[in-house]
User: What shape does this take?
Amino acid sequence: MKRKKIYISLLVLLVAVFLAGLRYAGHSIPSVIRPACAPLEIFPDYASGTVIPSNIAPLNFCLPDTVFRAWVEVTPLTVKGALAHSKIFEIKRDMVFPQRYWKKMMRCFDTLTGGFIHLKIIARTTSGTYAYPDIFWHVKSPITPYITYRLVQPIPAQSQTMVLYERHLESFEGKVLVSNSNLENTCFNCHTYRDGHACDMTVHLRGKNGGTLVSVAGEEKKVVLPGSVSGIMQLVYPAWNPVCDWVAYSTANNGTMGYYAYKRTVNILDTACNIVLYNVRLNSLHIDSLLWTDDYEQTWPAWSPDGEWLYFCRTPKVSRDTVLRYPDWNERVRHIFFDLARVGFDRQSGRFTGQVETVLPGRYLESYAMPAVSPDGRFVLASVSLFNSIPYHAQGDLVLVDMKAYEAEKNGTEVLDSGEEAPLLEGDGFPGYARLADELNSGEDESWHQWDYTGSWVMINSKRMDGHNLVPYFAWFDGEHFSRPFVLPQKNPRYYQTQLKAFNLPMFVKEPSGLTPKKVSEIRKDKAEEICVKR
Amino acid sequence: MNDKWKKTGIWVGALGTAVLVTVLAGVWYAECLWQMERRSFFSFSGLYIRQFFSEGYLLPGRESSHPLWQLAGNFFLQFCKGPGAYVTMPLAGLVLGVLLMVLLRRRHPALRISACISGAVLLVFAFFSFRLPSRQDLLLARVERLCIEERYDEVLELSDRYWFSHPCPIEDAVTGINTMYPNLSAREIAFRGQLASYTKTALIGSHRLNEKFFTYYRTPEIYNGLDDAYQAPHSLTGMLRSRALDNPTLTYVEGLNFPARSGFSYANLTLSVPAMIACRQWDLARKHIRVLEQTLFYRRTARRYQNLLDRFRQACAQSGDLAEIYRATGLMPAQWEVLDSSPSFYEESYRRWEQNPVSLAVLEYINLYDLLYKNLDAVIARLPAYIRLTGQQPPYMLPAPWQEMFRIVQREGIPVPDSVRGILQKTEWSPEVQNLYERFMNACFDWQYQKITAQTLTEKFGHLFAYNFYFSRFVFVDPRTGRSRPMSH
Assistant: This one.
């Protein structure tokens, strides 16, 4: 009996050794390796030179279908040398970094000086085994750890699942904050935060029992406009003043109009827009005559970090002549160009001060939208598109405006402080204080951009991956130039190859939110507080 | 083998069968319920793409997005429609039949229990499948089956009955706002949307979308989709024109909108892929092909499209002449389609036209771009060449901008070559109509800023004018005969 057990154990051991041997023999690195001239195309495009934050989730990627097997050697480096031993991963095509390994590796880097991740790829392909040119990822300072975005269908349709999703950038974890499956499949939109704090947020719920959900210090309530006003105004595109309780909203009393533009898909045109202020503590809506006018369409409010300037976009109202000349919206919309403007704000009185300043005037085939101010207040990143105020439908590109240079030019003083070099160059037909952010732009649309709260990173939404769906990208900003943007990493490296939804309105958030779909559903059923309107 | 083992074996076998049937039926039905649009088992409302109806699928990092689950899900999804359902139902019946037969021959308690459980599961299953089918459900199920079997005339016969009894108010044609939908229930809207999609399928399939226009002009869902009914006349014009040319390739906008508006099903997605290839949106085409590759039914179609994509890309790389590319690959884009409205493509087309001025296709695109960018002088200058190529026929693309352009030409006194004068005269509006048109646009402007109501607007101009204004645009030139042909009953 004892001898039988020994035989069985030996047999099991032999089989195990044989199987292990088979595995080893099948997957060993071939002895004949030829150097490849061109770099291997990896998906997503995390090419050499990509700058990444030190707290980002693993940059999983996949190799082309021509590859049968590959070996990826990963080494964390600084200019002084390797920080840790390199590790070789043997993969088929999908390189999925173990999360524990990735975190351990990223902890090696100093948060100030950063370092490099060196990737050496050997791949067995149909034509032989090749060693491809090395890939270096430049590791820089950490990024704000959370983002929230809506996952929506790129084309409006009758029934669709829509969620507001919170994603932890340091891992692949995330959760649904709002889901329209709990809201009778109705739409919700325009979420915003006060200075990136998840406990202070607003989001608008549409449909029956809709209203604006306002969360102040984690306490949620639903507010609605009084019946006398709701017919002529909808509150959209909110921007919460980072230092006080005022939220600026754009209004659109006719909702949206469909028109056909870039690539001829259905698009949006907001009309009769003005800007109003809502005080979340007082639950009152203030209409300031400076930004409530019959002469201009005004939209896309954005605050400076000190809360003393409101940036927005405006255009003169469409004249009767223009309507007669271009009776069709499809044509007329091509002749609407928005300026980038700003106005002072007194947060004590809740009034706009001074006159509206036009920072960048709109002109033929140059229309500005979506200003976003950097945390130090010096730079404004705005969208410029061929027409209208919806850049993600009209070939939007990004423009960087140096407000310090703008101030200097306005005051007629020297642009530069001592020892500083001019970061912005003239050209592209823009004034001296603005330039196209060519590092960020592609042949497709770029929009929905936001600065990270450290000021070192920007997030942009781009259609560059397939020309249709918006996907978030991140880029490093060194005070002068942006690095090459890289796409939001996903656990499944092939995720973007088949996903058909668009990432809408991505926002940086400093901490996780306590909102849940159930809570939102309950708030929606609650009785709404009516907003008090003051002129 | 003694009796004990035999008995145990039979029990285990019977219970195993019952569990298997239960699990299969449960998974199958759960999949059915998962699809929001689905009403009953026999309503084969299409293989809906899971991303659009399942939260878990689209969220990155969730377990449900694991490829294995995707594959399993897609496998079961096949059984919700067409051949899958035809196969599964008889198979389930066969299992029950075999069990009953064995039961009758050998009266064993385990088999009896097993058959009862299986039968009960199938009964519950059938009950829920057939649960409370309304008349609308039955109509949809019937129309869908007819569409699958390509019996389009019968579909149109059934559809006519419904649409004639539920027309839209004609005022909506004037105001551009559909006043009917806010008063309908969500269920009714969904029903109308689905029926419209089947009607549209039948109209396209039977090549009668054009001639049936005046039958369905008060059914905006069919021509413009449910969302923006009446708000995008260009798409309607384009679709009519495309269909009139017997060109099965959807345009870019149709390719994107049709699946979205008619339900995100794999079947609808297959329609969009050739459009994406023809419009040179190759990345998007590749993405759609990848989505199709994940299914069992459409895997072969996906391979075919991948082949087409490769050939098309290769042809584009080898030849600059669009017409030649289409001839080589057999893929014709919709005639009026703007291939890509980016300025770079415009420049490229212009360069090609300069190299090869006899290419009508390239000339058309350039003209279209010039129209879009209002380069009137360039269009006027190129018109003689165009007329030479087309045999004295006016361009048959986008009539509205052409009419608009001629109005501007007249108003601003732009000098026109003699060869163009004839065309101008043909498309000229009479001063009365012109006057009325301007008054109408003024009124529309007032209505937009809520100075007058839609009702006043309609009363002011009457139905006749609204009818003429909207539908006089749909006069187009038949490319085969070269004659303009107004659309009429």
